[in-house]
Write a structure and sequence with these properties.
Layout (H helix, E strand, L loop, with lengths): L4 E5 L14 H12 L4 E5 L7 H10 L3 E5 L6 H13 L4 E5 L1 H6 L2 H5 L5 E3 L4 H8 L10 E4 L5 E3 L29 E4 L2 E2 L10 H5 L4 E2 L2 H12 L5 E4 L8 H14 L5 E8 L6 H10 L1 E9 L3 H6 L6 H13 L3 E7 L7 H11 L6 E5 L8 H8 L7 H7 L16 H26 L4 H17 L4 H20 L1
Parallel strand pairs: 1-2, 1-3, 3-4, 4-5, 8-11, 11-12, 12-13, 13-14, 14-15
Antiparallel strand pairs: 5-6, 6-7, 9-10
Helix pairs in contact: 8-9, 9-10, 13-16, 16-17, 17-18
Length: about 475
């Protein structure tokens, strides 16, 4: 007899901790299981941190498994939920998947005694086999407790090549009305072939690129458009890497004749994978927000972090995107190993060079299984243990996790604070440009909205609410 699973999206501190849209990863797993006739229930604790809701869901649904998708930041919260479940319901099996599970694997069993299983990489087929009762040792990609209580790995599971064979998330058992934004997040591809020293993504989703076909992707968008959704965030790490595919997607979107549709690329695209023709077509198809992962402000740092881009390529793409009217967001990491004060100043100066919408200056976090992490550990540069900084510090907290001979702790704090000041000013300037036709009233509104943004970059709810105020203001003006 097939078994049932309760999915839990655990609440997190900081930027990733608020429920501003439904979880794409769990949504994908849930939809796949539903298509296979397997039962699930979903609880999103980003909407409420009340642990009693876990108890109520278990009493109502009576699952055989509880599963959590876990990021490396603030993962202790997931462990707390697992231990709560195991204490109250020792017969329920617990499984963790996602970035944290794929990265640390067997370590999780020592850190979380109530854990029964760890799923690595993609979970669709793995969960199907587990719920249908296949023996753990025969389920590739699964780590389970052996007879002596020690973890046993069943072996690597091949990556899913045909993404069109997976149903897209429809969130049929999610209460979509509870989310802060009426926005649907979409993943159109999986994989990352690059070797950036700071990024764990290739270790988490694989280096081999796999894609949804343009036809399948437009079917997904059309599903939500017919349900009155107009805003879409595409969360790919490499949406523009396949040029011909981008053109095919845009042409099919234009053929649909959608009205008022908006696409954003908030996760960052590579500057060397766009050009004028592509960006012009994307703009016509409804793309408005475009983020670039710049990371460093000069070629020396770009080479050091193995970004595989040049400053000239980045500046060309940013200037072109601004010229074409995109809302451009830039991402920088301040204080990578080997970076000097002058290098950080170059990043801050680059952010101020173009009329962008926003810039995020990140506190560098050494994620396990990255080249940056190995370098910092080998050179004894960490100020805190891994389990401490991953659960206490995020990208937007001015607390350096490591120091280097080139940048001491106080210099890092000073430069990060300067970056945040510049970030606030850039956003204020952007809002003033948007509202300049309103004169002093527009400037006042821009300052109020940008101060809401500035309260705390990791208070994402404030950002969303402030941005929505501005959007309603602009749409009212346009309608008038």
């Amino acid at each position: 007899m097939a078994q049932k699973i309760l999915f839990i999206s655990h609440d997190q501190k900081g930027f990733l901790g608020l429920g501003y849209m439904p979880p794409v990863g769990i949504g994908s797993l849930a939809e796949y299981l539903e298509h296979k006739g397997l039962e699930y229930m979903s609880l999103d604790m980003r909407l409420s941190q009340d642990i009693r809701k876990v108890d109520r869901c278990i009493q109502e649904f009576r699952p055989d498994f509880v599963g959590l998708t876990v990021f490396s930041l603030h993962y202790f919260r997931a462990y707390e939920i697992v231990e709560f479940v195991k204490t109250q319901y020792p017969h329920i099996k617990t499984i963790i998947g996602g970035a944290h599970a794929t990265t640390l694997r067997e370590e999780l069993f020592d850190e979380c005694p109530g854990l029964d299983y760890v799923g690595t990489f993609e979970g669709e087929h793995l969960l199907e086999e587990l719920l249908e009762g296949k023996p753990p040792e025969e389920i590739l990609g699964l780590i389970y407790r052996g007879e002596n209580g020690r973890p046993v790995f069943s072996g690597e599971r091949p990556l899913i090549r045909n993404l069109d064979a997976l149903p897209f998330p429809r969130y049929t058992r999610f209460d979509l009305s509870k989310y802060l934004k009426k926005t649907i997040g979409i993943l159109t591809s999986r994989g990352c072939p690059y070797d950036c020293t700071f990024c764990p993504v290739p270790e988490i989703i694989g280096k081999t690129m796999r894609y949804k076909s343009p036809e399948y992707l437009v079917e997904e968008i059309d599903y939500w458009y017919r349900r009155d959704y107009r805003d879409f965030d595409i969360w790919d790490d490499n949406f523009t890497i396949h040029r011909r595919r981008v053109f095919e997607i845009c042409e099919k979107l234009l053929a649909k004749g959608y009205k008022d549709i908006v696409f954003n690329l908030p996760n960052g695209v590579r500057a060397d994978r766009v050009d004028r023709e592509m960006l012009m077509l994307m703009k016509r198809a409804g793309f408005r927000g475009l983020a670039y992962g710049v990371e460093g402000g000069n070629d020396r740092i770009l080479t050091l972090i193995k970004k595989a881009e040049t400053l000239e390529e980045i500046e060309t793409a940013v200037a072109l995107s601004c010229e074409l009217g995109f809302e451009v967001v830039l991402f920088f990491i301040l204080g990578m190993p080997g970076e000097t004060r002058e290098d950080v100043e170059d990043s801050i100066a680059l952010a101020q060079k173009y009329p962008i919408a926003r810039v995020n200056f990140y506190n560098p976090i050494p994620f396990p299984r990255t080249e940056m992490y190995d370098h910092i550990v080998a050179n004894n540069l960490l100020r805190f243990p891994k389990e401490d900084y991953l659960n206490r510090i995020d990208h937007f907290l001015n607390e350096p996790i490591f120091a280097t001979p080139d940048l001491a702790v106080e210099a890092r704090r000073e430069l990060y604070a300067k970056g945040q000041q510049v970030s606030r000013q850039i956003y204020r300037n952007h809002m003033r440009r948007q509202l300049r036709s309103f004169g002093w009233a527009g400037r006042l509104t821009a300052d109020l909205v940008s101060s809401g943004f500035a309260q705390s970059l990791h208070d994402h709810e404030s950002v969303v609410r402030a941005a929505n105020v501005a959007k309603r203001f602009l749409r009212t003006r346009a309608a008038a």
